[in-house]
Amino acid sequence: xxxxxxxxxxxxxxxxxxxxxxxxxxxxxxxxxxxxxxxxxxxxx
Length: 45
Prior knowledge:
By secondary structure, the chain is an all-alpha fold. Helices cover about 25% and strands about 0% of the residues. The protein contains 1 helix and no strands. It is flat and about 30 Å long.
C-alpha cells in the first residue's frame, strides 16, 4: 500500500490485543506495515 500507519491504526491493534476478543491469542507477531513486508521472507533461510 506504500503508506505509513497512522497512530490511530497502531492504537486499534493495541486496543484489540488488550481486549477480551484476544483472549485466545498467543505467540503471534503482528506486522502493521500496510503489507510492505508481505512475501519478503519467502524462500529465505
